[in-house]
Amino acid sequence: MTTWIPDAASVLPDDADRAMLVGRAQTPDGPSVVVLRGGELVDISRTFPTMRDLTERADPAVAAASAGGIAIGSFADVWANTDPDARDASRPYLLSPIDLQVVKASGVTFPVSMLERMIEERARGEAASAEGIRDTVLGAIGGDLADLVPGSPEAMRLKQVLVEQGMWSQYLEVGIGPDAEIFSKAPVLASVGSGVDVGVLAESEWNNPEPEVVIVVASDGRIVGATLGNDVNLRDIEGRSALLLGRAKDNNASASVGPLIRLFDEGFSLDDVRRETVALSVSGDDGFRMSAESHMEQISRDPADLAAQASGAHHQYPDGFVLYLGTMFAPTDDRGEAGRGFTHQVGDVVTIASPRLGALVNRVQHAESLAPWSFGIADLMTNLARRGLLA
Fold first, then answer.
1. pLDDT (tens digit per residue) in 273-295
2. Residue 364 host element (H or E)
3. For residues 176 and 179, what is the distance between their CA atoms, to the nearest angstrom?
4. What DSSP line would sit under 277-320, residue for residue?
5. Closest of 246, 209, 251, 202 to residue 229, by C-alpha
6. Do the beta carbons of residue 129 and residue 349 sit within 8 Å?
7. Phi and psi, residue 295, nearest 5°
8. What would you report as the CA-atom Rg of the chain, rounded to the nearest whole angstrom?
9. For residue range 286-330, what is the model confidence (pLDDT) as tens digits?
10. CB–CB of 331/320 below 8 Å?
């Protein structure tokens, strides 16, 4: 049987042999925390029943390296079995690498994403109106926003000029104002991993992937690792009203994370995240092909600042959280009818990749057609208790 997922070697980071990579796999016993060692996935759930338990340690990379466990198979075999079209449910397959962490996301963190959100808003979600509005917005803003620091006096002066020109937008406020947009992307345990389907609502006629770096943050605010994410975006629904953000962002299988978490250690740190390049490719059954790159160096808000805006004295996360850092990707290439830009079709294969985090690969389906999300926190706790993994 042919498969839409790539070979295992292309899914792992270029320097996987030197990386501390952890994740989760479904085993015959239940969800298990795993670490990659010499090409094998080792189940360390006897020491760390949940990923939350591991990421709460003072040094998660050291803790993962020293944890005892049992090999469940090669990464290549487990990855191949993750394909929902060819899966043997009696054998291990990959899951989203997070479990009890809250799934948060930040938006409008790149200048281009701010501009596209303003365009969506003014187009009222109508893709056909976007091109003319884009020209108007770009003409009003002028110049290069890459060096503009949100909340700075220069940013506030630009905001005032745009307001005077009738260009005020709620996206302008979070794009160049002092406060970042931080929202809840998905419920705990609702994210999906690499090698499976992601969902868009059948009613959406203007949508796109959002390739992003995702940081993993412990309950005390420490950023302990990173992975990749697809913050699936329904542009027409959010464009109709920002108050529809929940409907546009939180649907069945609309948040993907993976393939594995790379924990910070001597060879990989937040500075490496700040320099990472994220590549996107979309391949459709209609022959459509698209590719693009996002460079983290172009982000307007530092990852540490975004984490601090999400958590602190004003808001705590006792099980930690993950935070999508935002995207600079907003496709405008026409797919089909001229002037309507890009939108997904069922069957699109989306690959989000970076040299040091690997590749997150998903296939697009309608959210309504996917298997319902049914394994929640109570189910996880019951499973772990039955396996004798809870203290």
1. 999 999 999 999 999 999 988 88
2. strand 358-366
3. 8
4. EEEEEEE-TTS-EEEEEEEGGG-SS-HHHHHHHHSBTTB--TT-
5. 209
6. no
7. -110, 120
8. 21
9. 999 999 888 898 888 899 999 999 999 999 999 999 999 988 776
10. no
